[in-house]
Amino acid sequence: MSRDLALPVLERRLGAFEEAMVLTQEYSPFNVVVALRLRPAPPVGALRQALDVVQREQPALRCAVAGRTGRRRFVPVSAPLPLSVDEAAGAASFLAAAEEELARRLPLAEGPLLHVRLRRLGEGEAELLLTFPHAIVDAASGIALVEGLLRRLAGEGGDPAPAPPLPFLPARFPARFRGPLGRLRALAALARGLGSELGFQLRTRRAGLPGIDRRARSRVLVLELDEAATAALVGATRRARVTLNSALCAAFLLAARRHLRGGKQLPARLFTMADLRRWVEPPLDARALGAGWAMMRFVVEPGEDVWALARSINGMVGDRLRRGEKYLAYQTILPMMRVGLGGRRFRMGELAVSHVGPAPIATRYGAYEVPELQVLVSNIDLGPEYIVQSRLRGGRLAWGIVYLDTDMSRELAEAVATEAAALLAAGPPSQEVP
Amino acid sequence: MSATEVLSIVETTLGRRGIRLEDRLIQDLGAESMDVVAIAAALEDRFGVRLAEEELPTLERVADLVARVERRS
């Protein structure tokens, strides 16, 4: 692919979140995998053409990562996006290769930062797997990219429309989270985080929480609620005045507590993603492929009641977001990762839940039907025990769950998901609604 | 009438005064996802309007909330 000087390029230093995500890759792959079922299977030539257009449009797909930790930069590369094709992967094997993709080592120093795999499933169907390093994708831009690719595949969209490069995020933070004062606030947040971690370690030191096992492999489980169950759950969250994300965090925490901890009353650590795209000034374009988010960590006391826990999480997360701690979480993730990866003695939490809302992927693009979409995130070896990616599509709530095979069996992982769904299905008792 | 009531719900939820119809919930008023859910729930209680989860990201300004309440389907 020739360089076109009119196209935007991504040549800047990495931000803290991007640095932290690249740092994890030195230990184990930390990928985002988008898996689509397509009918009919696209010809390889048509897919290659669509990928070439998307690559021309996206600066992040024309770069690699150079330099050492803390001083890394995105640098331009000219290689086309790698595309591999599995002929006759076999009917009913959708998602069978997703676990391989979660463990794929992407060549960050060489680029490009996306691998594409087409698997023919038979019966005129195919699976399209897009594997990104976590450093260059978030929920908004990843889905926008997939949407753009499907339009190109269907022959829509006209001439390539270059997307803007993702800027250096901290430059767009509110003034009080930038500069020397911003760094001081970030240091204070880091100190609070370390204090919270020490407190957690002290309280759980005899609890037998699982450690790090280098043989661990990410395993995939998907679960979908039907339209009636999804509508009932959305109604329940409104009555309880909580977000879907808070309700999911509460249900999965309690379910994990019952199945993985034998119901022990211990504090729990959970992670949730804070979207920064609409909160920076000016807001980020949804088409700018990149990681415009922060990872926030919480220590909570699970208790017994799922809706009480959901309200507690909702209040705790809301308070910290309103105080602007999402900006501090962004700035402190790199030292936190360094401590975690350097010590290699503790897991970062037991649960990471990310409900990203509606996925704007249609069910049809020209001749192509898209009956299924899953988004999965690698579970790195110091990561949470249970990762839930949740999204709404066609009125249904879909969960892409990833766990480590050294932590639990598939049966246990399924039991946690089934119990979480059952906990939510009951809804909040009307007399407890505030 | 509904515009005044919607403004009042938004002001109460966000704990601030002087909000205008053209204000954007997130960029101008700093609303978080929790606030948007609380506003949606309050509108449902007050006006009987059912706001689908998929609709919430499209309701960018206070005026969009007013228009949605006035459509009320």
Describe this structure in words.
The complex is a heterodimer of chains A (434) and B (73). Chain A folds into 2 domains: 16-153, Chloramphenicol Acetyltransferase; 173-357 and 379-428, Nonribosomal peptide synthetase, condensation domain (Chloramphenicol Acetyltransferase, 2-Layer Sandwich), CATH 3.30.559.30. Helix content of chain A is 35%, strand content 23%. Chain A contains 10 helices and 14 strands. Chain A is globular, with a radius of gyration of 21 Å. The N and C termini of chain A lie far apart (59 Å). By secondary structure, chain B is an all-alpha fold. Chain B has one domain (3-71): Non-ribosomal Peptide Synthetase Peptidyl Carrier Protein, Chain A (Orthogonal Bundle), CATH 1.10.1200. Chain B has helices at residues 2-14, 33-47, 62-71. The longest helix of chain B has 15 residues, at 33-47. Chain B is globular. The interface between A and B is medium-sized, with 23 and 17 residues.
Class from secondary-structure proportions of chain A: alpha+beta
| Largest interface by Cβ-Cβ < 8 Å | A-B, 23 and 17 residues
What string, H for helix and E for strand, traces the elements of chain A in order? HEHEEEHEEHHEHHEEHHEEEEEH
Q: In what range is the share of β-strand residues of chain A?
A: 15-25%
Quick one: overall form of chain B? Answer: globular
Number of strands of chain B: 0
Mean pLDDT of chain A: 89
The count of DSSP E runs of length 2 or more, i.e. the number of strands of chain A, is: 14
Question: Rg of chain B, please?
Answer: 11 Å
Number of helices of chain B: 3
Q: Give the terminus-to-terminus CA distance of chain A.
A: 59 Å
Q: How would you classify the helix and strand content of chain B by structural class? A: mainly alpha
Low-confidence stretches of chain A: none
Instruction: Give the low-pLDDT segments of chain B.
Output: none
SS summary, helix count of chain A: 10
Q: Which CATH C-level class of the largest domain in chain A is it?
A: Alpha Beta
Helical content band of chain A: 25-40%
Strand order of the largest sheet of chain A: 4-5-6-1-12-11
